[in-house]
Amino acid sequence: MTAAVELSGVCWGPRGRPDILSDINFSVPQGQIMAVCGANGAGKSSLLRLIYRHQAPRRGTVRLMGRDIWALSATDAARSLAAVLQEQPTDFALTARQIVALGRLPHRRGWGSGLATPGGEDAAIIEAAILRMDLTAMADRPFGTLSGGERQRVMVARALAQQPRVIVLDEPTNHLDIRHQLELLALLKGLGLTVIATLHDLTLAAEFAERVLILRDGRILADGPPDLALSETTLADAFQVKARIDRSGPSPRFSFHL
Ligand SMILES: Nc1ncnc2c1ncn2[C@@H]1O[C@H](COP(=O)(O)OP(=O)(O)OP(=O)(O)O)[C@@H](O)[C@H]1O
């Protein structure tokens, strides 16, 4: 089966600067849940920006469903891939429902029609995404009046309304309380989509992901099932701390010291 996302020989750096990401090679099968972990500045968000076609690799290729993502139009890419980012829209006057409705834009014919009130099928998809993210009670409130966690759920609902095959999330559990963190990760797992998410919380990564990719200084340090990728040696190397993992319980417990 065609990989959902595949990076081959990818390097990236800002213009006029040395590479920040080097020699990145991995392939994510359709339906896989992958967490990307690593220290601050390791290159996680930069890697996601390459995957959601925000920036082009300096060398190498990023493929989405087998096609070079830069051979696709932005709209075609958005029909297959949705991104949930840490930066949120600045248009705080839009209601939560209007923001979720933006997820339908890549599927509308002609950008002008995208601003019209959604028709039957689109409206049903938007309402389903609102319901799924438990936003019904606040759907008509301006986005700017929502709490950080509620806004995060609106952004996930927008991604769901986009009906992508791949969903990329940058720190999706930021701002969420424990219950909403667990609910969001369970929901993402149950979608049957390919999911690539950066996560700082290694316990959540170990429980949620089938595969963990660990970056260090812009290179892949480990890539594999959580039990293998999240080893004491790898974590010590990735985060420059002493790491202990207690695997005696149902899920691993991580402890760290300097
Ligand atoms: N456009 C840019 N220009 C200059 N430096 C950049 C640019 N984008 C990223 N960097 C640098 O690249 C490195 C990796 O940044 P990135 O945001 O990808 O890290 P991260 O792993 O997501 O970090 P964090 O956990 O702190 O969010 C950082 O040192 C950052 O300052």
Model description:
With 258 residues, the protein is of the alpha/beta class. It has 2 domains: 1-65 and 166-258, P-loop containing nucleotide triphosphate hydrolases (Rossmann fold, 3-Layer(aba) Sandwich); 91-164, no CATH class. Helix content is 31%, strand content 26%. The protein contains 9 helices and 12 strands. It has helices at 44-51, 74-80, 96-101, 120-132, 148-161, 178-190, 202-208, 226-229, 232-239, and strands at residues 5-12, 21-28, 33-38, 59-64, 67-68, 81-84, 166-170, 194-198, 211-216, 219-224, 242-246, 253-257. The strands form 3 sheets. A 6-stranded mixed beta sheet has the order 6-7-8-3-9-10, sandwiched between helices. The chain has a 4-stranded antiparallel beta sheet with strand order 2-1-4-5, covered by helices on one side. It has a two-stranded antiparallel ribbon with strand order 11-12. Strand 1 and strand 2 (21-28) form a beta hairpin. Helix 4 packs antiparallel against helix 5. It binds adenosine-5'-triphosphate. Residues 14, 20, 38, 40-46 line the site of adenosine-5'-triphosphate (ATP). Residues 5-242 form the ABC transporter domain. It comes from Gemmobacter denitrificans. Pfam families: ABC_tran. GO terms for molecular function: ATP binding. InterPro entries: AAA+_ATPase, ABC_transporter-like_ATP-bd, ABC_transporter-like_CS, P-loop_NTPase.
